[in-house]
Batch of 4 targets.
Target 1
Amino acid sequence: MKKQIKIGILTMLFIGLYGCESDFLDEQPSQFLNIQQLEEAAEVNPAIAVGFVDGIYAYMVETFAGRGNGRHDDFGHKSHDLYSDLLSSDMALSVSTFGWYRAGITEYQSTQDFTFGENLQVWSFYYTIIRSANTVIAIQGGADNVPELEINQHILGQALALRAFAYYNLHLYYANDYNPNDEVLPLYDAAIGIGLPRSTTSEVYALMEEDLNKAIDLLETFQRSGKAQINKTVAKGILAYVIASTRETSRMQEVANLTSEVMSESGASLMNQGEVLGGFNDVNTPGWLWGIDINEDLNIGLVSWWGQVDHFSYSYAWAGDFKTIDSNLFDQIPNDDIRKLQFKFSGHPQENQGTNASIFPLQPFYKFYDSGRVIGGASQVVSADYVYMRYAEMLLLNAEANAKAGNTGAAQQSLFSLMSQRVPDASYVNTLSGQDLLDEIFLQTRIELWGEGKTYQAIKRNQRNAERLGTNHLSFQGEIIPHNDNRMTFQIPEREIQDNPEINTQNP
């Protein structure tokens, strides 16, 4: 996978066109090739379009990708996974020595004040992906085209899926709730250089579904060489999330079918007990569906997800900004559940040297760690990868969708498949039905996917509350926050309101 995400000449062209130093609504710089020229060149040499798509994947792990001003909470897509985990309150900021995430995220200042940079970071990042995907789509003759060459079909399919993925995240972060008639986001479906007004949720979702369904068809024969790229099964997984987030009971069978297809077609498997304690650091883990191989070519260090979360990297999590599991959620994990050990510090020969673990427990000592497992370890991340999607989340989403569709037996079966690998006796699952079953699926989603950027989605999708009931939060202890509370949603950034004449206020 190293070759796929190296930043080469074409990726530098991508950054020149869409880098965060310039407004993403600016017209294309005249010194670069125009769309027609690129389209003509790509027909002769598909490697040109491949370079643009690979540039998007590289951008997703780019340091300072969102704001470009050197902030250590700005490191691509996983930056926002971390934002969402802290907003969900299942991840607690227990100690704040350096101040990252405290005011803007855990004290909800950014989600209530559009001048805070977190709003711009998330907005700019995903719209940059959209703009670059639109360029690739244009190079391939448009979203409705079916390129003659198979390689170009695969390029177009990936671009469409990436555009939908970006819109899914934007709606997640900038819409209080799923309301089809609400005007939420500017909808750019072409490589244009002008600002647009907000489109409705239904229009955004229609484009996402259209893109993903086309992508699934175009990626039918795509065989990726690693896991960094979106293939057919990953596109189906994204589509399952999109449909599930509509909360339309009549469509939950679609979600159940899609997630079943992902699990059966992907060749992946549920992570076993050894793997769930193995560090979540290897993209080759059979339970991972989509992820990035972090290697020396990417030059990733402190400014990274690992640099914020992992006690066994050169990190803030080692030096004094501790991200821990909410103690109330931890208490809900049975003592015989293997996942409880993910948050316990025990017995490794190096683990008694220079650690604050006994003073500040409940860090993910055995869930997320660099494979070298040296406290405050190497300054460059080379043996700890990024996970974007895995088999277990499809299994849980399948259980959730089946339960909502009234397929109690199928929901029980999926949940049992997970829990039989986590606790000695999972037979209790077969006694659950109705709301009790939904409650258990939601709880197991929170436990299984803790720290993976999925709980915030589950809260909004299921109209649940964010609960700060643990005693290890620095602020708002005891707060219960509804899924559609303004504090749970980012604001359209100040710069967008200033620069885009079609948007001059926040949503009503």
Target 2
Amino acid sequence: MNRPYDLIVYGATGYLGSLVVQYLWTHGPPALRWAVAGRNEQRLATLVDSLDPSQSHRKLPDVMVAALNGEDLGRMAFQTRLVLNTVGPFCKYGTPVVAACIEHSTGYVDSTGEHVWTQQLAAQWHEKAMANKAIVLFPTGLSGGTIASIFAGLETYSLRQMMAASAPGASCIPDAGPHRPHPAPNLPVRRDRFLGDLTFNPSAIADQAVVMRTWSLLQRYGDRTERYGDRFSFQGYTAAQGWLQAWTSFLTMSVAVFCILLFPPLRWLLKWLSPQPGTGPQLKPGERHFVKWKATVAADGVDVSEPSVLGIMRMNTDVYSVCATLVSEAALTLLQVLEGKDEGSMAKKLGGGILTPASLGIPYVQRLEKAGLQWKVTDIKGKEE
């Protein structure tokens, strides 16, 4: 694939986009041929000028002006091997970018957490992406435009569409085989003796969509040893500091969603009060942040309330920087796949389609480890696997 650029960051001047550009400038390959793209040439040039000059051994990204129209997006996709898109809300602005990438057999990565959009996109474009050898990945994340994405979803989709897309199997590819998942817990709040008090996590719906699509891809295309099995199920939660806080959090969120859905004027007021897209928190010097995930796993045939394995992952930075790291490293790993340097991953095997980050395989995990991901898997008795 002989093209001028390896990677183009689209929407580079937004909050997450600028974090991605900073990350790639610091951690990307020195020989990376890349560009920053968006609608405002002056803001793009200012971003490039702000990059740390001490990294003089690296090539500065070029500046490319590209509006959200078919001609500009097609021109952009034709000139690069991969587009990293941070322009949201994706349900409003993401589809033309994905379509342009698929049309020109260009790889695509973004940071969306909009599960309704990804489910509909996968249903419509997966087969064409496979035929055109275009790999499309959606590492989920949060950014300054998260609130705007939530409101855009409420304005774009009906409640019925949102409920349908939230079903566990909605994101799965057809013909993945039988699926007999364990029943989901009846209550949104629960106590786990290994994970503590847990409450409803709205972003877990997006996580579930990615995990279940991974399950279906492996069931259909993976080796026998890679498959999760037809009893596989996934539930995600947010850790709470106690039973009372867990229920308070869930009830407060439920009332807020109910009011937003039933009273449009409240929705307009909240949009007006909310941070604007392209913005995000300004971290103070010396602040210490971390993001931590915990998971328990129960083997097939074992009572799900008696898990046998505990896994922990942690990154010692703020959630927005974590998101920038995840999408940037997914893009850099996918570039390796496109270069033919990875022969064992599902992404390489399929060559195209609406896939998930898991399709990048162990090389993606190894890159994240170098970027600061700490992880450990132990059995319940404390023996490290």
Target 3
Amino acid sequence: MAQGKASAPEYQGALGSLSVNSSLTDVLAKGVEELRAAEAAGEPREMARCGLAVAEACRRLGRVEEADRAWKASYRAARSAGDVAAMAWALWSGGTLARQRGAFPLAYRLLRLAAEFGEHGGDIVVRGYSLAGLAETGRIQGDYQAVGELHEQLLAEARKRGEARHTVWALEGIAQMHRNTGDYDRALALFEEAAETAGRADDRRGRAWALRGIADVLSVRDGDVERALELLAEAEVACREMRLSSALAYNHKMRANVLYRAGRYEEARDGYARALAEFREMEEPRGTALARLGLAKALARLGRDAGETAAELSELRDTLDRIGLRHAREMVEKAAAELGVAPLPVTDGARGGRRNDSFPEGPVPELPVTQGAVPELPVTDEETPR
């Protein structure tokens, strides 16, 4: 099936006319306005829909505490309305937020529930988004064997249904796995296909992420610094216009990566420091740790004491391990060898056992979703990371 224009199915009800390219500040303002109107009218189904848009706008703007409150309120409103599909969308938002905050076990739990609720509620779109969220969580952790097939399956389904936005997401995820395993030619082809597909579908967010991927491959494979920086500058325009805080921070970190590879260490240092501040502001632990790693490498190249570098890399190794990134130790120890400070000292954190945060195997357990009986919110405030 031919792909049409990209849509934003998370914008529902009174917000259904919003574009996938709508500024997030505009989405948030409209969402809050319509949410208040729905509350005044006593319409829980509309409260759930508007609350979902508020949650997603807050999450993408890096306002994580507000996003956390909003997705839970959306879930409760959907539950009171007996709308299982709307409950699934709220759980998807909550699971995506958990992943953004580095809480992988919680992300797996909520996204698996969201996929089941979507199936029970007859909403194949939220089911697909939730499965995609599971696949992305596993990919971020480096569990490519577990999620590679799921990425390919979701790509095929998205193409069959003509869902351009989901097609772009899947292409980018598969491309990233190829890039990380050293197949740069395949990665570049997929990133370029994603950028072209996003462009035809008017999906500016998806295109910005694809351009970032292309820039990365051109930098690491070809050493083409200027072209990489041009692509990142183009992507930054879209990120700023749409207020994509997380995408912008990752764009800035990639720009620093490109400069570091080119030996422009002072510029790279400043870029990593900028990205680090942005990640810290939005409380994104994965981005924070990766920006710290880049900054540590740049500072070492600029003459930082070797002992200080080794101590920071050792701490970062433990931090990334706690977050649950499988390739963290390899990344940090590669940096230590590159900088001449290996082997790193062994700390108490490095001796700890493996966390139970890997991609979930086996069938999804039966959920208590039956006609006329929907479950309570399946996560308490205490379980939500702060």
Target 4
Amino acid sequence: MDRLDWTAKWADYTPEKIAITSYDVNKSYTYSELNTYANRLIHKFTELNLEEGNRIAVLADHGLEYMVLFVACQRMGLVIVPLNYRQSVNEISKLVNDCTPSLFIYNANHKDKAEQLPIQNLKVLTFEELSDYYQITSDSTIKTFQIKEDNPLFIFYTSGTTGSPKGVIYTNKMLFWNSLNTSMQLGITFRDSTINTLPPYHTSGWNVFVTPLLHKGAHIGMLEKFDAEKILCLLDLNKTTLFMALPTMLLMMQKTPVFKDVNLKKLRYIISGGEKVPSELVSFWKTEKNIYIRPGYGLTEAGPSITSLHHKMAVLKPNSIGKPNFYLDLKIVNKKGETVKPNEVGELCIKGDIVTPGYWNNSVKTSNKIKKGWLFTGDFACSDDEGFLYMKGRKNDMYISGGENIYPQEIEVQLELIKDIKKAVVLSVKDEKWGECGIAFVSLANDDLSVIEIREELTKNLVAFKHPKYIFILDEIPLTSLGKVSRKKLFKYFNEIKSQQ
């Protein structure tokens, strides 16, 4: 039995324990069933002449079939390419052409989109067909598989907010060390359970809690789409112990009518990240539900478990992303590559077995980002005198106005300290006088607040040259499918406003 074949191990140790539950179809698989179904799927893939290194492109929601596919692919050395079903047909077509899959799989929810893709010359199956096969067939021959740690397991395409999407290679080695980092920080055991509502086309949908809990022989609940009220009820009903949610998701949950009534006493931690976790959010959940929110930092190219803020420090160190996890090295460097001193801003760099070997079909991008084993994240950060880390924004987001380096996240923090501002986002554009200037977008809890009043309040805590040249008040800040701020939509809005002036 291979040491990386966690499902086979748990199928041997605790065969009748529930491994996965889909709350969309109210169906569960035990560890024994997950193991058996994966073996049957391998038999099917062998019939299709799939070989180690072949890519399988998937256009489907997360769920039971995806988990069976994961186990089968890991054993065979096949590479899963989860496609973002929220993208247009044109965008998805480019990804299919880039990864050159040997098999294309989709589920019924995305049939219309799948039929418009350039897959006429590919082997094509539906998840429904696969499910019928592995549940009906009786061929479950026990085989020995050698799972190679350097074999790619996933190709995750980045969102493309700073350019065209790039395929990040995710290996079995990354999977293993990320699981250890996560388990060490949170004390995960086989007694734990989670409910995953994050999409499969993002590393968080697999590697925040799903694969670490699979490693520990714990229980993984699955919900295809995030529904604030439904997830609260499920967390209560199933006495869930660990949960991951973006700040936007948590805000939606606390506004539901059932929030005050649900019992979440078994929920040890909520992990949050993907964007800045407001200290007010941390305080609210601790006060109202006695639940700790643990902010952290991760990215597709590494982990994603990179840093974590201990729950008892979340209030004492507001806006911090914590300290580095166990099995990685981290440094912050200046333009010369020199490590900066505490409280100095520089680029965050990561080294260790959680770092990707590179980008699919993009050796130039790989060599630019990974130097002597160090991943240059493109994120600006600093540490305080006690070693706690703070994000200062993306390297591409920093702008120079009148010769001064300006970090948007610093301005966003000050804007959100103003009473009645719910959310603030700061971007930059070219400016004839200063070279570049800031544009701020805010959403309000009180419609009476004006731009003039915002500027007056900002003057109290922020030096003048850091003030945004433009401030726009929006009903809501637009978000991506992952709940992150959609900078593309904000730039589009700004350009439309400018064109009308």
